[in-house]
Amino acid sequence: MTIKATANEITRRVREHPHGERMAQYALLVRADKPIGIYLLLWPCLWALWIAAEGIPDIWVLIVFVVGTFLMRSAGCAINDYADRNIDAHIARTNDRPLATGAISPKEALAVFAVLSLIAFALVLTMNAFTIYLSFAGMGLAVLYPFSKRFTHLPQVFLGAAFAWAVPMAFAAQTGSVNKTTWLLYIVTVLWALAYDTLYAMVDREDDAKIGVKSTAILFGDSDVFIVAMTEAVVFLGLLLVGAQMDLGAIFYVAWTVAALYTTFLVFLAADRHPVHCFRAFLNHHHVGWIVFVGIALHYAID
After folding, report:
1. I need a labelling partner for 110 at 20 to 30 A (CA). Which of 27, 75, 77, 205 fits?
2. Around Cβ 13, how many Cβ atoms within 10 Å?
3. Is 146 within 8 Å of 82 (Cβ atoms)?
4. Can you tell me the distance from the alpha carbon of 198 to that of 212, in angstroms, rounded to the nearest whole number?
């Protein structure tokens, strides 16, 4: 059974509980039925952990970051919907979200964000001091991103900065320090998020333009597909540099090639700018993430 099918089954059973409908609305608030955000946040985190450890990371560190990924993505959804509570009702894809329908109040969404963030922070407290310090910047980025679309056409960059912050935190937790590879991988992850989230923004471009919401899809205009393609090219160049710096072997480069070819297919898929195709290209970026991870993990397993 897939993660999404499992989530849907859990949601069904929750609804059968005496307080199930309320619980189901909370599950929808944190996108328990749509795990794509967890995947896209998790894969770069795992890239970083395996590279920092040069193999399987410390088991407790791995557990903290995997659970933390789920918690912070869920918290991010809650604060995002709070920020967009007056916008989502005007966009076809989001008008059935709990805050947009009034099923959950803004105060409840803030409470969910606070509780999940505190649980994640409690886990971070089991890490070293450097990781704890870095977590404050990560929290700031998580809060800033949802509001960035009000004052800049680059909210996708803010999303990337927030998602990619798991990279320096992973290095800090595993090794107690960061290095040039850390920041190269951070930049790669920011640009990767810029590319796939621009594809996501292309789905809502017409609605966003009508209500004044800013995005890179609007900023890039008719050059959107070209800029996404060029951004993806820089991402894969960056991954090549990471491979060279860490002396990764042939199996990594095989995975890199497969991931690059698959990404090329996804860019061509979105080239007609049809919302369905753009959304599919966005969703399938998580396959790119796991292909790269497999290449990294197998290198260290076989080396």
Report:
1. 205
2. 12
3. yes
4. 17
